Amino acid sequence: MRLPVYLYGHPVLRKTCSDINPGREGIKELVSDMFATMYASEGVGLAGPQVGLAERIVVIDADPFKDSFPECEGRKFTLINPEVEILDGDTVTRSEGCLSLPGLSENVPRVEHIRLRWVDEDFQPHEEEISGFLARIVQHECDHLEGKLYIDHISMIRRQLIKGKLNSILTGRTRCDYPAKYAPRKK
After folding, report:
1. Collapsed DSSP state (helix, strand, coil) of residue 181
2. pTM of the model
3. Using CA atoms, how far apart are residues 55 and 20, in angstroms rounded to an integer?
4. Range list of β-strands (E), the chain
5. Which letter does DSSP use for residue 169 in this model?
6. Active-site residue among 42, 83, 141, 146?
């Protein structure tokens, strides 16, 4: 089932997410719904807050980037309760977009090498060192679990320059090609 994507300004996008316990009901269905939503929205990653859940879950399928970034080939996985450890202080700046910020993209600096620990949908533990563009995707999605958006990593000047576009999302004037949940209107 396709779920609505929660857009910029919705309070759930700024919450720090809670861990998911092995006894959580409906985890397999949630994972399936999140992948269906991500694919229908033409994304490569989707985090719990983006579907209205303040829970530590991420789905990623980086394969569409395999031609430009070989490390992305065949990389489809579910991250539950992920932990990211920065391994390399060098940063690379690349353009990022987000389903929760339709119509926007900005250059974001991120490290190129991380260690990732997580459990999968069967609650089996995993640990892996990840580099390159795949590390960027993982960091972007895991930021959502901490209540952060990629625009939090850009300069204040850039944020001022895109303020009008952000306000268009907040007021519902920006439309997207997928089901979306706009921020509640302030009274």
Report:
1. strand
2. 0.96
3. 6
4. 5-6, 45-47, 57-61, 76-86, 91-97, 105-111, 113-119, 125-131, 180-181
5. H
6. 141
Place of tokens 């719904």: 33
**Containing H/E element for 31?**
helix 27-40
Query: Which CATH number among 3.30.70.270, 2.60.34.10, 3.90.45.10, 3.30.980.10 corresponds to the domain 5-181?
Result: 3.90.45.10
The β-bridge partners of 94 are 108
Catalytic status, residue 141:
yes
pLDDT single digits (tens) 92-116:
999 999 999 999 999 999 999 999 9
Segment 14-31, tens digit of pLDDT: 999 999 999 999 999 999
Q: Which positions ≥6 away from 101 have C-beta within 8 Å?
A: 7, 8, 149, 150, 151, 166, 169
Question: What is the residue whose two structure tokens read 């060098």?
Answer: 90
Q: What is the dihedral of CA 178, 35, 57, 74, to 10 degrees?
A: -130
Q: How many residues does the chain have?
A: 187
- Rounded to whole angstroms, the Cα distance separating 173 from 165 reads 9
Closest CA to 71 of 118, 125, 113, 127: 113
Nearest CA-CA partner of 45 in 135, 122, 112, 106: 135
Among 140, 150, 137, smallest CA distance to 104 is for: 150
For residue 50, the SS3 value is helix
Residue type, 119: V
